[in-house]
From TrEMBL, chains A, B:
Protein's recorded name: Acetylglutamate kinase
Biological process terms in GO annotation: L-arginine biosynthetic process via ornithine
Catalytic reaction list: N-acetyl-L-glutamate + ATP = N-acetyl-L-glutamyl 5-phosphate + ADP
GO molecular function, a single term: acetylglutamate kinase activity
Gene that encodes it: argB
Role this protein plays: Catalyzes the ATP-dependent phosphorylation of N-acetyl-L-glutamate.
Cellular compartment(s): Cytoplasm
Positions in coiled-coil regions: none
Any one GO cellular component localisation term in the record: cytoplasm
Origin species: Arenibacter nanhaiticus
Subcellular location, principal: cytoplasm
Record keywords: Amino-acid biosynthesis, Arginine biosynthesis, ATP-binding, Cytoplasm, Kinase, Nucleotide-binding, Transferase
Pathway(s): Amino-acid biosynthesis; L-arginine biosynthesis; N(2)-acetyl-L-ornithine from L-glutamate: step 2/4
HAMAP family: ArgB
């Protein structure tokens, strides 16, 4: 039987709220077994960029990463957010080690080709170095990835944290029984958007089609769910979507997605 | 026989000059055997702090690290400088992994006690986790340390890069035959400050006393040399001081210090 591995992704809404982050890191520390954390930090970067007088250009919710924006992202994701999370996890007894995809050549990406839009220094994941990540896990480190990769030619690249999390989960599924957790601001996929507790607790392909047809899954939820099924179709065991409380063993109110 | 380990420290003068950094990273990549890089980045931090409207207070060449300055240092040392160095080393075929002292709990420090001056979030190294660093070296990673430690209670601390380098060298000397390299802007200890090539190529304790008496070693050189002998007295095999070219096998014009 394969050993278990949890890959947990948190977004900006957790990182920017000190109390929420603290609570999350407690839950993450208490999580049993091998684990990996992936974090974004978008709003914090925008805030520092504003202070530096750098305008963050966004197209369809995606940042255009010019040279100056990449600097800010490298400072905020790789430095400020990552090192503070690592220090706090260490204080909670989790042997965290902070990484970008350049560190240990863990995640190699390619600069997104310019089509209609030039996203600048944005990276599309090409290869997860599962051997390197496995070495770190075996040495009892808990990797904490920020949303930065590299092209192995010296260029750092801003990369979507959801994608990093799913690609790591996919890569590690050869060796581990993987569960991918997406923590966001809601308790899961909601039947009724105005009712926080109307969580669909289990989605499999048939249910997914049904939810799609009834327009329950739309807008921002659609790419999220597509990403989940992409991971499941590539051997990830289980994907869970919910707020940070889903990491607690007693929690039941979140969405589990399986094939 | 113990395996060899090189610990190389570079200062701000190398990091801030792109061409110089590139050249240094080539030399570092070509260095044979196990190796560790330690970098500062002081001037770059001051520059970003200025842009953010944060005044860097310095006393006797040391930064007073208030909460806002620590933020900048975490961004610049841990993020901008560290991740770019790591990405460039990876491109040169060196399997670099960027670390602060919080990562893998590699370097624990204590917040400097307030005496006449309150240095703020400045750390004095308490313990180098040699087992963790050895694990990384054995797994074929090349650690790249920025000048940040932690107190293992969630607090990051700004820490002198020279000290980090010597403390790592001292800690690793139990297992490795260590050479500590301090790269700075001069070719070594100079007999005549106005003659770049008047390098004292070898210093041992007797020569050191002689140089002290003749006022050859004074000002900024004094604490540097004290730091070197401190390391040598704690089992570090050899300390070398010079500019980046001393890492080249063909180089002879630099200062070697031994007991």
């Amino acid at each position: 039987m394969k050993p278990k591995l949890s890959i947990v992704k948190i977004g900006g809404n957790v990182i920017e709220n000190e109390a929420e982050l603290h609570k999350f890191l407690d839950f993450f520390s208490e999580l049993k077994g091998a684990k990996i954390l992936v974090h974004g930090g978008g709003k914090l970067a925008t805030q520092i960029a504003d202070q530096l007088g750098i305008t963050s250009q966004m197209v369809g919710g995606r940042r255009i990463t010019d040279k100056e924006s990449l600097k800010v992202i490298t400072m905020v994701y790789g430095g400020l957010a990552n090192k503070n999370i690592v220090a706090q996890l260490q204080a909670k007894g989790t042997n965290a080690i902070g990484l970008s995809g350049a560190d240990g050549n863990t995640i190699q990406a390619v600069k997104r080709p310019v089509k209609e839009i030039d996203y600048g220094f944005a990276g599309d994941v090409e290869k997860v170095n599962t051997a390197a990540i496995e070495k770190l896990l075996k040495a009892d480190f808990t990797p904490v990835f920020c949303a930065i990769t590299h092209n192995n030619q010296g260029q750092l690249l801003n990369t979507n944290a959801d994608t990093i999390a799913s690609e790591i989960a996919i890569g590690m599924s050869g060796v581990f029984e993987t569960t991918l957790y997406y923590c966001f601001e809601k308790k899961g996929v909601l039947l009724d958007i105005s009712d926080e507790n109307s969580v669909v607790t289990h989605i499999e392909p048939k249910k997914y089609q049904e939810l799609l047809q009834n327009n329950i899954i739309a807008d921002g939820m659609l790419p999220k769910l597509e990403n989940c099924f992409h991971a499941l179709n590539q051997q990830v065991n289980k994907v869970c979507i919910g707020d940070i409380s889903m990491l607690q063993p007693s929690s039941t109110l979140y969405t589990t997605i399986t094939l």
